[in-house]
Design a protein that fits this description.
This protein is an alpha/beta fold. It has one domain: Rossmann fold, CATH 3.40.50.1580. Helices cover 23% and strands 25% of the residues. It has eight helices and 13 strands. It has helices spanning 11-14, 17-20, 69-78, 136-146, 170-178, 188-197, 231-234, 237-250; strands spanning 4-10, 27-31, 34-35, 39-44, 47-56, 83-92, 102-104, 107-110, 153-155, 158-161, 183-185, 201-211, 278-280. The strands form two sheets. Strands 1, 4, 5, 6, 7, 8, 9, 10, 11 and 12 form a ten-stranded mixed β-sheet that branches. Strands 3-2-13 form a three-stranded antiparallel β-sheet, covered by helices on one side. The protein is globular. It binds zinc ion. The site of zinc ion has 6 residues, from loops.
Length: 287
């Protein structure tokens, strides 16, 4: 297993059919924290990569607050993955980030209260530094790859992680903007926190699929999430993320020099057990 792994939302939404045909059948893995989301493997240039689809394969089978983030991150760790690139669709908190834009956030504000979002226990915990929030090595690779896609690219920005699954009120969106957010999503910060706890590198790439509530007003004054002339851009997400995936696989994979492992403290926690066995995900295959 190669040390690079990927996490995305719904497989069908973020990857093209061409890429999906190259993936293995879906599996889920049992961990001490429960069952993972469906995952698949991709063979490329003699190496094998793992991709986890946090929400499902064909459609959203499980929403953000109910995703088993600990199982997903733990399973990647146990499979030998030390670096994670995540694909995230987000809502824009400002018209400066338009539908169809790529955003390489460099920080986040975590407002989600997902259950079980830490590997620590009440009696065994440490303060882990979260600055920089993401792996600088992976962010550099993402920036190089993303700059050749012909898309508007925003380097830097703040991702606000909310609980979901509902969308926010207009007042909540104004608040998220005031506290410094550029985009809003429901999953990424939880993954970034858990990855850091296990000494893993983590870096996200975000694609704006709509404006958050109240951000964009149509000429008639109505509230619009996706303007008519930007709907096609929203639908390009699978093409764009597939190109990012291919680009990352082809980009330089030099030995780690980022120091992310210096932040985590939990790798050796004795109560963590190895993955027990691989279980074929019958319920998710063929849907
Ligand atoms: Zn790193």
């Amino acid at each position: 297993m190669h040390q690079l792994g990927f996490i995305g939302g719904v497989e069908k939404s973020i990857l093209t059919a061409e890429i999906r045909e190259k993936l293995s059948p879906a599996k889920r893995i049992k961990t001490p924290y429960g069952l993972t989301s469906p995952l698949k493997f991709l063979a490329h240039s003699g190496k094998k990569y793992v991709l986890i689809f946090r929400h499902g394969l064909e459609k959203i089978e499980i929403t953000a607050p109910f995703v088993n983030y600990r199982a997903n991150i733990y399973a990647l760790k146990k499979m030998g993955v030390s670096r994670i690139v995540s694909f995230n669709t987000v809502g824009s908190l400002t018209q400066e980030v338009r539908v169809g834009d790529l955003i390489l956030c460099d920080d986040f504000i975590d407002l989600a209260d997902h259950m079980r979002r830490t590997f620590f226990t009440a009696k065994k915990s440490r303060h882990i530094r979260m600055h920089p929030a993401f792996c600088p090595d992976l962010m550099s690779r993402l920036a190089k790859v993303s700059s050749f896609l012909g898309k508007r690219l925003k380097r830097g920005g703040v991702y606000v992680c909310v609980n979901g699954p509902r969308l926010e009120t207009a007042a909540e969106i104004r608040y998220l903007r005031i506290i410094g957010g550029d985009v809003v999503g429901m999953t990424m910060a939880t993954e970034a926190n858990l990855a850091r706890e296990l000494d893993m590198c983590y870096a996200p790439v975000c694609y704006s699929i709509d404006y958050a509530e109240g951000v964009y007003k149509a000429p008639d004054g109505s509230n619009v999430l996706v303007p008519e002339d930007e709907k096609q851009l929203k639908n390009e997400v699978s093409t764009v993320f597939s190109k990012v995936l291919e680009g990352i696989l082809e980009s330089s994979d030099a030995p780690k020099a980022c120091g992310c492992e210096l932040y985590g403290y939990l790798t050796i926690e004795p109560k963590l057990k190895p993955v027990v066995k691989m279980a074929r995900n019958k319920s998710a295959v063929g849907k």
